[in-house]
Specification:
The chain is α+β, with helices and mostly antiparallel strands and about 170 residues long. Helices cover about 35% and strands about 15% of the residues. A 5-stranded antiparallel β-sheet has the order 4-3-2-1-5. The longest helix is centred in the N-terminal third of the chain and has 19 residues. The radius of gyration is 19 Å and the shape is globular.
């Protein structure tokens, strides 16, 4: 009952809390569905080992897509959970799905000083969409750090990229 304290803060929304060992079949089914979709995305990737950031990115992407597109059991005529709960419009499939979690890309990184000879683009792995306008979070293959960009070009997956992802994933 750790969420009882926020019931009044989220009014007029209704929050029903349950005990620690109580089961809510609809919630458990939803969690199972997210896990199945995540597993499916994971096994569609050519990597033998992935990074923690990639795992988180896959789960975030799957959850976002499950809430963004309506299903056969949707409430209302062609309304997604995103439309109903947040009041946001439908996602542009073309814009949001041009990258896929785990895809390598050449990513343009913005720097404060632009008159230097340092590189402006780095190889990175797509993690998850940052917004609905085409920006993505990436993981740099050179540093392993998380970066964000809206300027990127997908690259083919090579053995060098697969081995570098495995190397970062084992660190």
């Amino acid at each position: 009952n750790e969420f009882d304290c926020i019931k009044m803060n989220i009014m007029p929304a209704h929050l029903e809390t349950v005990g620690a060992n109580e089961h809510v079949p609809e919630v458990e089914r939803s969690i199972r569905y997210i896990k199945e979709c995540t597993r499916s995305c994971l096994h569609g990737l050519p990597y033998t080992k992935i990074t923690k950031a990639m795992t988180i990115g896959i789960v975030k992407t799957v959850t976002k897509h499950c809430n963004a597109f309506y299903g056969a059991d949707s409430v209302g005529d062609k309304l997604s959970p995103r439309n109903i709960v947040l009041g946001l419009p439908d996602l542009s499939f073309k814009r949001v799905c041009q990258m896929r979690t785990g895809m390598p890309a050449m990513v343009t990184v913005r720097r404060k000083k632009t008159n230097t000879m340092s590189t402006r683009a780095v190889k990175a792995i797509a993690l998850n969409p940052q917004n609905d306008h085409g920006s993505w979070y990436f993981q740099s293959l050179s540093t392993g750090r998380k970066i964000r960009s809206h300027i990127y070009k997908p690259l083919p997956i090579s053995d060098r990229i697969i081995s570098r992802v495995k190397e970062i994933g084992t660190q």
